């Protein structure tokens, strides 16, 4: 049976630490010697079972990106960035290919409006037992104006955003060569946090596998538009070409 909704366990949810909103909260990811249920480790990068599995009928894991609590994906050195993205892609696809789940989602929250609770940089890989996320995704979600392209990997700004306004897409060309894929993801995150035309402190990063292709979508987070909340109607801004040119000027014409 395939479900359309996930069920959130509020009892577990109330126990979760929230170091994004509560700055006095101790960080559970910094106490590395106390971490349990480790799945894989590559230097400062750790994949482990989620201690607070709030989503029922799922298998939840956390990918700790770095041992630097104040680190941020938009600022990682390229070597660490590529290692992190490769590590995440490898374990996400291994779970997806295992046959144990209907589908597997891989995403990152950053900032107070992202839906996250722990400030320490991390991602999540979650196996969904009875829900196929791909049924809610279509190829047009990743169509857009091209910002940059290298070795078949394409960085674009959505012309048909899933939620509305600004959504950045990266389509992976060759899984054996993820350098451009990782750098384009980082560029989108850096632009959102540092050069966006509206002050923005939050974003989400989502990974998708669709029709044999791998995509990433980076979404700046603000208060969600009521047209989408109430009617699922996305809005498209009229300055997409300007933003494409702005990013090209700031990051690709140096």
From TrEMBL:
Domain (DUF4931) ranges: 8-131, 135-252
Gene3D superfamilies: HIT-like
Superkingdom of this protein's organism: Bacteria
Pfam families xref list: DUF4931_C, DUF4931_N
Entry protein name: DUF4931 domain-containing protein
Organism: Cytobacillus praedii
């Amino acid at each position: 049976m395939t479900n359309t909704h996930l069920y959130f366990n509020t009892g577990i949810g109330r126990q979760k630490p929230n170091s994004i909103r509560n700055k006095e909260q101790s960080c559970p990811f910094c106490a590395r010697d106390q971490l349990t249920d480790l799945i894989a480790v590559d230097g400062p990068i750790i994949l482990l079972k989620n201690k607070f599995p709030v989503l029922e009928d799922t298998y939840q894991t956390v990918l700790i990106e770095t041992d630097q609590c104040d680190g941020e994906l938009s600022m990682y050195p390229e070597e660490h960035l590529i290692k992190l993205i490769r590590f995440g892609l490898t374990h996400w696809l291994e779970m997806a290919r295992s046959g144990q789940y209907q589908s597997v989602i891989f995403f990152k929250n950053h900032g107070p409006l992202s839906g996250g609770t722990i400030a320490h940089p991390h991602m999540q890989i979650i196996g969904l037992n009875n829900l196929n996320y791909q049924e809610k995704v279509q190829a047009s979600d990743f169509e857009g104006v091209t910002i940059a392209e290298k070795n078949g990997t394409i960085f674009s700004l959505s012309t048909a955003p899933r939620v509305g306004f600004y959504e950045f897409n990266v389509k992976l060309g060759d899984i054996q060569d993820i350098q451009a894929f990782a750098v384009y993801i980082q560029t989108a995150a850096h632009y959102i946090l540092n050069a966006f035309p509206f002050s923005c402190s939050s974003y989400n990063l989502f990974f998708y596998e669709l029709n044999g292709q791998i995509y990433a979508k980076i979404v700046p987070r603000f208060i969600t538009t009521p047209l989408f909340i109430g009617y699922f109607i996305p809005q498209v801004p009229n300055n997409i070409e300007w933003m494409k040119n702005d990013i090209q000027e700031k990051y690709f014409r140096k």
